[in-house]
Amino acid sequence: MKIAIASGKGGTGKTTVAVNLALALGNAQLLDCDVEEPNCNLFLGFDLKKQEDVIITVPEVDSHKCSLCGKCAEFCQYNAIAKLPRSIMLFPKLCHGCGGCVLVCPENAITEKKRSIGIIEKGTNEYFNTELLQGTLNIGEPMASPVIRQLQAHIDESTVAIIDSPPGTACPVITSVAEMDYCVLVTEPTPFGLNDLILAVDVVRQLGVQFGVVINRHGIGDGKVEEYCRAEKIPILMKIPDDREIAVLYSKGIPFVEQMPLWKENFRELYRYICKFISYQGGF
Predict the structure, then answer these.
(1) Which sign does the torsion angle of CA 262, 253, 148, 201 carry?
(2) Domain named 4Fe-4S ferredoxin-type: which ranges (predicted)?
(3) How many other CB atoms are there within 10 angstroms of residue 80's CB atom?
(4) pTM of the full predicted structure?
């Protein structure tokens, strides 16, 4: 079972839901796919060990062989190659590593070299009975998706994998959510929350991923998020209140299921609902 926790914008409580759900279930994998700013471990404090580098290939031009025909620059849709009057200029951080420039070069002047753009780390903790896998994109690198794909290659299909997705609706979110069995969209009952929820719903519907909504900080704002969910027939899976005790625990970096046992059962009930929903193929 693979469950993504996503949101249309940052700061809605996505990571809070992902961490507390993983801890409530136990014997689960938690994958922090918010690789530009991974923060699940702020709540867990695991001793993470590096597993591997994330490597992509980028072109390298042999100027002695290059005839300056410009076919490589014409082929590259990401503008990672530019033909100048006397040379070929490369922009490695724009390269997606497709290898097309190598194939179209008539002079065999282009080869590929490897470049690290991030790392994968892993940690476990017997007390929490949870495995944390974290991807970290190197500072200044623009492409998060290769790190996310390599991180998700570590998913253990025999257990439950909780995916903390990046916020927003761009490519890293699509990479995180596209292959999931279910997606939990976390939002707040505010006009901003509703606007970004609508954008996120459009994305997961186009991906064909089953989904439901968790409303965080319920009690603030207005009821328009709930009105929207009712109108769109979107299940509201859970409402987490705007509660002082939860806020205090969050500010101390403590997952609230560890101090508030009722919520551990609430998250387990949320998981049981998702399992039942999937087993009925969304037919109820």
Answers:
(1) positive
(2) 57-81, 86-115
(3) 21
(4) 0.89
Alpha-carbon span 95 to 186, nearest angstrom: 33
- What CA–CA distances, in Å, run from 46 to 39, 130, 188, 270? 12, 10, 29, 25
Question: Is 172:166 a contact under the CB 8 Å cutoff?
Answer: yes
Q: Is 114 exposed, middle or buried (0-12, 13-18, 19+ CB in 10 A)?
A: exposed
pLDDT tens digits for range 152-175: 999 999 999 999 999 999 999 999
Please provide the average confidence, as pLDDT, over all residues in the chain. Answer: 94
Among 183, 238, 173, CA closest to 4: 183
The per-residue b/e assignment along 20-46, b for 16 or more CB within 10 angstroms, e otherwise, is bbbbbbeebbbbbbbbbebebbebbeb
Residues 6+ apart with CB under 8 A from 108: 65
The pLDDT-based confidence of 284 (bands split at 50, 70, 90) is very low
N residues, the chain: 284
The CA dihedral of 79, 85, 86, 87, to the nearest 10 degrees, is 0
Percent of the chain scored above 70 by pLDDT?
99
Q: Give the separation between CA 245 and CA 128, rounded to whole angstroms.
A: 21
Residue type, 27: N
List the Cα angle 28/31/37 in 5-degree steps.
Answer: 145
Distance between CA 164 and CA 33 in Å, rounded?
A: 6
> pLDDT tens for residues 108-142?
999 999 999 999 999 998 888 899 999 999 999 98
Q: How far apart are CA 182 and CA 207, in angstroms?
A: 11
Quote the tokens at residue 189.
Answer: 């009952």
Tokens of 276: 């039942």
